[in-house]
Amino acid sequence: MSKLVEVMVTGVSPEVKARIEAFKKIRQQEEEARKRLSIVRHKIAVISGKGGVGKSFVSTSIALTLAKKGYKVGLLDSDLHGPSIPKLLGLQGQKMSAGPPGIFPVDGPLGLKVVSIDFMLPSENVPVIWRGPLKTGAIRQLLSMVMWGPLDFLVIDLPPGTGDEPLSIVQLIKDLDGTVIVTSPSDLARVVVKKAVAFAKQLKVPIIGIIENMSYLKCPRCGEVIRVFGQGAGKKICEEMDVEFLGEIPIDPRISECTTRGKHFLECYPESDVARAVDTIAEKIVSKIKEMKE
Q1: DSSP characters for 113-171?
Q2: At 213, phi and psi to the nearest 5?
Q3: pLDDT of residue 19
Q4: Which of 123, 179, 247, 282 is the most exposed place for a label (fewest CB within 10 A)?
């Protein structure tokens, strides 16, 4: 490949030479990313299609639950404009270290390996104001430099929608085991999240299943289940688009309280209804991946 490039650059303009070198660099980064991720057994992307459904909470919950079960787990926050994983895990203010081998993730709860652009910003108030090509380049460079080490699972938290970041992740990580899609119970979410299902199908990414977050609120006194945001959007999407339903996660007002204290909710309340629901969902994800691999 290098000899071919040398032949190509002979007698061409500086602008063309620069483009060829840029192309070479991109291919080198893609190859390096492939090598670094080759020792990660399973890679799961978590997508929503719509903001405000609690996707990052679901991503962190799945990652922590898998780690609690004894798996080696990494968590990649690929939301460049609104990274929230560090806040949810109580890791704000920490920085990733770098050395000759590459960039090392931040150590999170239960041995979780965490990577986020938030760890690279001077403060939480600094915005990332980038257009599409810059975002794609940043994700590619990050994947080519992070030293994950051997992992059983890499959970990738994608930003809402079906734009640059989700598309870049899907194109760069060609051996994704599948995607988990998060919705809330509202009919509005159902309409938008169906686009995320269509996105995965169009790009031929296996769909592990759909999770309905914030499904209901259980009264702490009488146990009555209250469907605050409506009922059944997750199951409706599954029926309409032939996708597996992984389960419901209830609302718990204490989630915000734990985040304020710098702890993840599952650390604070490991015996809660939320924790039990996520545990069941995590078991289904593991089982589904094994089934898809057979």
Answers
A1: EEEEGGGGSSSTT------HHHHHHHHHHHHHHB---SEEEEEEEPPSSSSHHHHHHHH
A2: -95, 155
A3: 82
A4: 123
Q: Do 148 and 166 belong to one domain?
A: yes
Predicted TM-score (pTM) of the model is 0.90
Closest CA to 54 of 195, 225, 234, 292: 234
CA angle 74, 75, 78 (to 5 degrees): 140
- Do 13 and 99 lie in a common domain? no
> Could you tell me the pLDDT band of residue 229, with boundaries at 50, 70 and 90?
confident
50 shares a domain with 97: yes
Q: 27 is in which domain, residue-wise?
A: 1-38
Token pair belonging to 27: 């291919």
Q: Is residue 31 domain-shared with residue 54, that is, in the same domain?
A: no
Cα four-point dihedral sign 122, 124, 127, 130: positive
Confidence of residue 6 (pLDDT cuts 50, 70, 90): low
**Token output for 101:** 């081998």
Look at the chain and report how many structural domains it folds into.
2
What residues contact 202, with CB distance under 8 A and at least 6 apart?
A: none
